[in-house]
Amino acid sequence: MTDRSEVSHLLRRLTFGPTAAEVDAAVAAGAGATLERVLAPIGRPATVPEAGPFRPGKEGRQEARRQATDAAWWWLTRMASEPGAAEKLTFFWHGHWATSVRKVRSAALMLGQQQTLRRYGGGGTGPLVRAMLRDPALIIWLDGQRNTRKAPNENLAREVMELFTLGVGAYTEDDVKAGARVLTGWRADRTTATATFVAARHDPAPVTLLGRSGAFDIDSYADLLVQHPAHLPFLARRLWNRYGSPATPDAATTARLSAERTTTGMLRSLVTAEAFTAANGALVKQPVEWMTGAVRQLGVDLGALPQNKRGPILGGLRALGQVPFRPPSVGGWPVGTPWLTTSSAQARLRYGQALTVLAPEAVETLAAAARGDRTEALARLLVVDAWSDRTRAVLSAATGEPRRLLALGLASPEYTVH
User: Taking CA 99 as the corner, what is the angle to CA 14 and CA 151, rounded to the nearest 5 degrees?
Assistant: First the structure.
C-alpha cells in the first residue's frame, strides 16, 4: 500500500467517508498521528435536540413519527459534519444494541440511548452494559416492562447474552431464566423518558447464573457478563465484521483485539493489524455509510438544506433499507453482501443522481478537469484508490457529462465496496 492508500483505507473504515482534503492532511501527518486524531473525539458528549414527551392517541403518534424523523436528520447532519471516529462508533453500537423507535415510540428515549452509547461506547464495556440494562428504550423494546416476579419475561435476558455480550453457545436456557429473574422489577416511562426500579415487582431470590450462585442485582449481572471469557472475543469479532471484513477473523486477530480492555483500544489494534491492510476492498458500505460519505465528499451541507430538499437523503436511505433509529430487528442490520442486490444498485444510481443536483460545486470540480483527466479527478473526489478496467470503461463513456459521471462513480463497485 502507498501512504495515500493506507490512510485512505484507515479513514474510510473509521469515519463516515473522508474528503480528498482530509486524506491530503492525513498523508502529511502520517498514519499514526492520523489514527490518534481520529480516535480522540470518542466519548465526548453531544448536544441532542429536545424531543417532547410521549402523548397517546392519533395526534401523539403523528408527533412521535415527526420527532423520530427530525432525530434521524439531526444524527445524519452530525455524521456528515464530524470527521472523527466517534459518530461511526456510536452508529456501530446502535446496530449492535439494536433498538427501534417503531416500538419504543419516543424520540426522546432513542436520543437518550444514543447518548449512552456515545458516552460509554469507547471505554470498557462494564459501564456500557450497566447503563444499557437500565436503558428505558431497550427495556420497552425487549419487553422488560412485562418482566415481574410473578411472570418473568425472558426476552431481555436472552438477547443481552445472545446478541449483545456473549454470543450463542456461551450460556444455557437456565442462565436465561436466572437472568430474567435478576432483571425483574424495572419499568420504563415514555412520558418522563426514564427507567425506575420497583422493588415490589422484583424477585430477590438467589439464582445460579453463568456458573455463579447468589442474589444478584443488575450491576452484578452486568459484571458477570463482561467478565465472562466469551465476552471480549465476541465483541472483537463484531468489531472486525463492521470495521475489517464480513469474514470471521482469524484466531490471531481475535486474540489481538481481545487483549484490549477498551473499545477504542480494540479499534486501534484492529486498524494496525496486518489482516486489516489485507482486507482493503472487502467490506460493503452500509447505506448510511454510503449516503453520509457521499454527502461529505460532495460538499452537501445537510444543516443548511431546507425541508423540501431532504428527499434524496431520507428517501434514499428508506429505499436502501437503513434509517437511523429504525433497525429491522433486535439482530440489527446485516453486514456484507446482503446490501449488494439489483434493487440496491438501482437505488444507489437513482439517488446518486439526485445527490448531484445538491452538489453543483462537485460537478463543477469535475467539469474543470480536462476530459481525459476526469476519471482520475472523480477517484480523488470520492477517495477511491483505483478503478477496475470494467468500471473505467463505463466512466470513460460519461466523461462528457460531469453530473452523470459523478452519479456513476457513486454507484460503482469501487465506491460501494471499500
Answer: 145
What's the chain's Rg over C-alpha atoms?
Answer: 23
Helix axes 231-243, 218-227, angle to 10 degrees: 70
Distances (CA, A) of 332 to 139, 160, 162, 386: 16, 13, 13, 32
Q: Which long-range contacts (CB under 8 A, 24 or more apart) does 410-413 make?
A: 410/294, 410/348, 410/349, 410/352, 410/355, 410/382, 411/345, 411/348, 411/349, 411/352, 412/384, 412/387, 413/388
Rounded CA-CA distance 232/100 in Å is: 25
Contacts with 63 (C-beta within 8 Å, 6 or more apart), sequence order: 52, 55
Can you give the pTM of this predicted structure?
0.96
> Residues with Cβ < 8 Å from 319, sequence gap 6 or more?
347, 350, 351
User: What are 271's three cell numbers?
Assistant: 486498524
Q: How far apart are CA 114 and CA 201, in angstroms?
A: 28
Residue 207 β-bridge partners: 214
CB 362 within 8 A of CB 299: yes
Among residues 306, 291, 393, the alpha carbon closest in space to that of 350 is found at: 291
Q: Could you count the other beta carbons within 10 Å of the beta carbon of residue 298? A: 23
pLDDT digit string (tens) for the chain, length 418 residues: 568 999 999 999 999 999 999 999 999 999 999 999 999 999 888 888 888 777 887 888 899 899 999 999 999 999 999 999 999 999 999 999 999 999 999 999 999 999 999 999 999 999 999 999 999 999 999 999 999 999 999 999 999 999 999 999 999 999 999 999 999 999 999 989 999 999 999 999 999 999 999 999 999 999 999 999 999 999 999 999 999 999 999 999 999 999 998 999 999 999 999 999 999 999 999 999 999 999 999 999 999 999 999 999 999 999 999 999 999 999 999 999 999 999 999 999 999 999 999 999 999 999 999 999 999 999 999 999 999 999 999 999 999 999 999 999 999 999 999 9
3-state SS assignment for residue 195: strand
Domain ranges of the chain: 58-227, 287-416
228 neighbors 179 (Cβ within 8 angstroms): no
How far apart, in whole angstroms, are the C-alpha atoms of residue 303 and residue 68? 17
Q: Give Cβ neighbours of residue 90 (< 8 Å, ≥ 6 apart).
A: 114, 117, 118, 121
From the list 150, 137, 212, 136, the residue with the least C-alpha distance to 180 is 150
346/391 Cα distance (integer angstroms): 16
Q: How far apart are CA 414 and CA 390, in angstroms?
A: 11
